[in-house]
Amino acid sequence: MHPNPVFRGRPASANLDFARQRSFGQLSVNGSFGPFAAHVPFVLSDDGREAVLHLTRSNPITRLMDQSLPALLSVSGPDAYVSPDWYGLPDQAPTWNYVAVHMRGALERLPDDQLESVLDRLSESFETRLAPKTPWTASKMEPELRARLMRSIVPMRLVVEDVDGTWKLAQNKPDEGRLGVADALKDGFGHEVAELSALMRQLPEDPPEEMDSEQQAS
Q1: DSSP bridge pairs for 28
Q2: Are the CB atoms for 61 and 26 separated by under 8 Å?
Q3: For residue 98, which of 192, 175, 4 has the smallest C-alpha distance?
Q4: Inter-axis angle of helices 115-127 and 143-150, nearest 10
Q5: Whole-number mean pLDDT of the chain?
Q6: CB atoms < 10 A from the CB of 87, how many?
Q7: Which of 27, 46, 33, 37 is nearest to 158 (CA)?
Q8: pLDDT over 50 (residue 217)
Q9: What is the per-residue DSSP string for 55-67?
């Protein structure tokens, strides 16, 4: 997370809502030769206390799961390069604006008999977003093929103990500089640049002071 507190003032609830909407992130744990990472879809519970997911049996992380492990689930949002010229202000430096949320906690392997319910939760969560399309369900798969696929994956959950977010949207610049960058991003590059520009135009409201220390999901 960015060390500047001006980019980190969003309450845990806002960061969890962002992660829940994205539903895709990078899961990282420490291994014997350094970090292991996997890019995974997940479903975050309503209270933000757990994220369920699955990994293939051949994934290096799965092979470490004889016990729970400290883990990080990093969720990225829109991002873009910012040229100093776009601020219309003197003495600026190049930077990169972005939104990202980190969820830390204990990664646990769930019993194999919970795999079906985890897969159903994942597909139901994502399929309902495609309404009015009729949701896909696992019953549409040929049973033998479905059983073979299920043998290759294992259910997991991250018990979320801490959540933190960076919303780097030029909040530390005068309004005219921030809005100048938002305008110029149309000619820039990055990921979901239009969404980043919109966030910079209408900054999320600052959280009330009593929520400033709310960094945990509990």
Answers
A1: 37, 72
A2: no
A3: 192
A4: 110
A5: 92
A6: 21
A7: 27
A8: no
A9: EETTSHHHHTTTS
